[in-house]
Amino acid sequence: MKDILSELEDRRDGARLGGGQKRIDAQHGRGKLTARERIDLLLDEGSFEEFDMFVTHRCTDFGMEQQKPAGDGVVTGWGTINGRQVYVFSQDFTVLGGSVSATHAAKIVKIMDMAMENGAPVIGINDSGGARIQEGVDSLAGYGDVFERNIRASGVVPQISVIMGPCAGGAVYSPAMTDFIFMVKDSSYMFVTGPDVVKTVTNEQVTAEELGGASTHTKKSSVADGAFENDVEALAEVRRLVDFLPLNNREMPPVRPFFDDPARVENSLDTLVPENPNQPYDMKELILKLADEGDFYEIQEDFAKNIITGFIRLEGRTVGVVANQPMVLAGVLDIDSARKAARFVRFCDCFEIPLLTLVDVPGFLPGTSQEYGGVIKHGAKLLYAYGEATVPKVTVITRKAYGGAYVVMASKHLRADFNYAWPTAEVAVMGAKGATEIIHRGDLGDPEKIAQHTKDYEDRFANPFVAAERGFIDEVIMPHSTRKRVARAFASLRSKKQKLPWKKHDNIPL
Ligand code: HXC
Hints:
Number of domains: 2
CATH class of the largest domain: Alpha Beta
CATH architecture of the largest domain: Alpha-Beta Complex
Largest sheet: 8 strands, mixed
Number of helices: 19
Number of strands: 17
Bound molecules: hexanoyl-coenzyme A
Shape: elongated
Strand content: 15-25%
Structural class: alpha/beta
Distance between the termini: 62 Å
Radius of gyration: 26 Å
């Protein structure tokens, strides 16, 4: 018996060594952790339960019978993050470059199926040279099986991808279908075709980092949601994110202990909005002052900064925040900001996370690049996402809410539950100057008359009361009491149930 037990231990030790000490040292030499070290940091200490440690590939081509490493280049299983269950796979670059064989893919599929059946998130740590070249179409079939699970799991359990090495070719499409993608600066990249192919086809000379590194994907393409300095930081941030999320679509978001008075008054908010309507202010200040303990988890911080998206807690419960940012492009809506916010709104709605919308929006960005780029279609995504969202929706207009953008930003007309405005709100078709130049075009040569018309328009519309008289604004509230009002509004909506008409699925403008 002793021998049998020690054989198991020996086999386990062998499997845990992956591709061997030399390759582990090389991995460390690149500033990267191994697949198992990453899992250890991601999960609660001692909580990891592994599956399929001894699985090997079945390929017999190109001398592959000679190398059959236990585990086949991916470590899979489940564990807990702050006591809550998650499933995880972590590709092991030290074993055949983490390349994906049929059996490697089957291991991932197994834990994804279990995650869906048991209602727990899937976290995928990607570090792979792509399809196992020796396996050919068997490898592609394996990828196809994983993609299909990504699609099936979408909206059922949260899926998070962490890119910690190469991720190229068709392999990128698994992370692309997950809810959040995190990357590590300087040691990870994602692209459909690499620099060599790019050079051959388009004659562009570009490094892997420039083409598909963390900076590119968080600042330019918006493929990734966050970029972190190293593996340790990225994994700590995944843990923080998971704390905000429900485990599945049938469970409410977690309720955490909180030590911040929900009725906390913030007098400084009474002077947040400057007197001059053209002067910007930082909307993040409002978010931080509303949040329990000032804790804000921002998503896509470096992309389309004219809109802010992320999670806070109110009375310990997760709330998704969407807010125009007057500091960037005056908080205007455009293609990028509409896409960014629409995806975030839809994530929150999938997983029963209530939505808080903070509005200061002068309209949509004009210009040929916006129109040629399809701002009509992309702007419609946000409108559509808010309209179809059935989670509790609370909106606060702090200043401008002009034109179509007023309707888009979770207005009453899209079935928002509470629409508050600060006394500084201006709900109108457009700003007073623009309005005057159109309706009093004949007086354009007379500055005095124009000034008077502008003032008349401001007096009539540069306030929240016209909308409040019609019930489009439920209450005009004091800025200093916003946290209390918003927290009470969400508390009153905890049992909200709203149904949409039956449909197979909708046809959101893509
Ligand atoms: C089999 C692979 C492999 C692969 C790497 N290895 N990628 N084995 N299939 N796809 C092996 C290497 O042979 C090497 O083995 C070990 O992993 C480490 O690789 P290195 O090249 O030494 O590492 P590095 O210099 O860091 O380069 C990493 C790399 C490079 C850039 C990823 O390995 C590479 O270009 N690999 C091929 C990438 C590729 O073309 N993949 C197919 C893409 S198409 P030894 O034993 O020598 O240490 C694809 C389609 C997916 O993925 C479609 C989905 C539908």
